[in-house]
TrEMBL record, chains A, B:
Keyword Transcription regulation: yes
InterPro entries: HTH_LacI, Lambda_DNA-bd_dom_sf, Peripla_BP/Lac1_sug-bd_dom, Peripla_BP_I
Taxonomic source organism: Rhodobacter aestuarii
Protein name in UniProt: Transcriptional regulator, LacI family
Domain of life: Bacteria
Every HTH lacI-type domain range: 12-66
GO molecular function, one term: transcription cis-regulatory region binding
Pfam families for this protein: LacI (PF00356), Peripla_BP_1 (PF00532)
Keywords, alphabetical: DNA-binding, Transcription, Transcription regulation
Length: 341, 341
DNA sequence: ATGAAAGCGCTAACAC
DNA sequence: GTGTTAGCGCTTTCAT
């Protein structure tokens, strides 16, 4: 590949394009951003010069000068959870045609890391922030309150938000599932979930679930928690353990579909009568379930829609600032599948 | 929450901290970056002022002035592939303690989108770029060549790279799997994969697989391709279709573990004799497989290690520029599992 | 150990 | 339709 005149490795600037095209920097800038009136002739000249030089604009300088950054910070606990990539894709799809760009930060469910990631993001002065959850450290909360840009807290509506909130009520989701299970006649019910105090949404689902059971005068018969490892495998193991410990249990409520799927596979393998003798349910409505031999009962967490609504709020307010404080509660629906009788 | 003196929504600047602490902007800057000698007393004053004001530095201005950006662009085809989040976590883990930050861009396997994402990233003048694959549009390749920062192409080593390359040989991986299958005595072999011309690594695996078979005088008995939808479900459906069409087939090679897992579940459900009558193998070594009743034969794609090696190269060269052009080929290993006799 | 001046590469605002 | 000027908020460099 032959080297262009600019053979020193110095990055190209507007000035280089300006000189190469014989047009002022300002006009070059206008052409490159499609702003203001530029004659077709100059336009051509400039684009030609930019292309042959291989000029890539410096957004850092542009952002500093214009006080505008087309970035939206998206802060989520994990990428390996399957749920968050889906939220992300909802966000991306909407931002795609707004000129805004998502930038992802991952917290690993750690409030300290969330605070660091948030600080890092805000120091780039993004046009908005989308952040998972309502629970944040005092420092994070202060930063969000003072960010001076739209903030959308997603996934969860059970609690007060800093600004806009888009999500579902996990408490209610848990309650509804409890009601459905009780209505189906199950009475000895076990819960299997993650040992993660920082997963507030799973915690709220369990609280709601207990409330729902309590309403029918029932309490959980057994519980089992795990942390780390392959969720599918853990689901198997926990199910095996619980069935061994509490043989007469008649329903297993899993805090997520992956461990639920592991449990389902185990039960089918053992030839257990599902849903006759033993009912099963998970949470999330992940696509994976469609490939299993039996459809696990679950509840759609509206992941993509949460992403797209959140992105819409940010995009709308980036375009013209409003008062903020939007609250959007989505309604998850129980998918009974084949594992509740 | 009470408002601080700065009640106009103007973002805080170094100057605000400087005034609040009675110290020059320069010294404030030094304190905030831990650079140069600052007396403990001033240090305290400054930090105190910054904290109470809630000052967040403006990295845009900082980057412009210092010509240094602690960002590393990471460009991958997809987040829902399970493989890429693992690569990412390898990258993050290494960058964590280097002061560099990964910024992710997703291409959806589209060269045009890759070019746009790359352009966008380079316009932020990152300290390095990690990009999946060796195949890029002419435009992308030109940008990579002229970026003036370390570029690491990952996942694949079958072809020439722009700068550094970290990955495995998918062609060889396919060949090795073919050899193992033939050695186990299977002869009527089917391939099931994605209908994605843009997935060059899957294509190379298939090419290598065919080469491996050809060496034993065998050609593929049947093939089946899919696109979109739940991979697990597609694996089921394709397996069903192929077994119906070619009942005497004795081995199914899947282009990835998700469809392989779907196929395995289907076969077990139908009570087929795996691996006696019918052998199965996938590719990737995803964690999910551990939860299945039978272990699918597969090949570890070294995802996390690819990520960490790539990050190490970028970090090393960000610290002190070298000649570049590192080539690291990792060696995937066949995991025979329970589905090859 | 601290401060002053210059300037990073671009765009807003205003001429012409 | 095009050019000029000033300055975005920091850091570099040099002075003290």
């Amino acid at each position: 590949m032959s080297r262009s005149p600019n053979d020193t490795r110095r990055p190209l600037t507007l000035r280089d394009v300006s000189e190469a095209s014989g047009v002022s920097e300002m006009t070059v800038s206008r052409v490159l951003r499609n702003r203001g009136d530029v004659s077709e002739a100059t336009r051509e000249k400039v684009l030609e010069a930019a292309r042959t030089l291989g000029y890539v604009p410096n957004k850092i300088a542009g952002a500093l000068a214009s006080q505008r950054v087309n970035l939206v910070g998206v802060i989520i606990p994990s990428l390996s959870n399957l749920v968050f990539p889906e939220v992300l894709s909802g966000i991306s799809a909407v931002l795609e045609d707004t000129g805004l760009q998502p930038v992802v930060g991952v917290t690993d469910y750690s409030p300290e890391k969330e605070e660091r990631v948030l600080y890092e993001m805000l120091s780039w002065r993004p046009s908005g922030v989308i952040i998972a959850g309502l629970e944040h450290s005092a420092g994070s909360r202060a930063m969000l309150e003072n960010a001076g840009v739209p903030v959308v807290e997603i996934m969860d509506v059970d609690g007060p938000g800093v600004d806009a909130v888009v999500g579902i009520s996990h408490r209610r989701a848990g309650r509804q599932m409890a009601e459905a299970i009780v209505a189906a006649g199950y009475r000895k019910i076990g819960f299997l979930g993650t040992k993660m105090p920082e997963d507030h949404r799973a915690r709220k689902r369990l609280e709601g679930f207990n409330e729902g059971l309590a309403q029918a005068g029932i309490t959980l018969t057994d519980t089992e928690f795990y942390s780390g490892g392959s969720a599918l495998l853990k689901g198997r193991e926990m199910t095996e353990a619980m069935l061994a410990r509490t043989p007469d249990i008649d329903f297993l409520y899993y805090s997520n579909d992956m461990i639920g799927a592991g449990g389902l596979i185990y039960c089918l393998e053992k030839g257990l009568d599902v849903p006759g003798q033993l009912g099963l349910a998970g949470f999330n409505g992940v696509e994976l379930l469609a490939g299993l031999p039996r459809q696990l009962a679950t509840m759609d967490a509206c992941r993509r829609e949460i992403g797209s609504k959140a992105a819409e709020i940010v995009a709308a307010r980036a375009a013209n600032p409003g008062p903020g404080g939007e609250i959007i509660e989505l309604e998850p629906v129980i998918q009974r599948g084949d594992t509740i009788r």
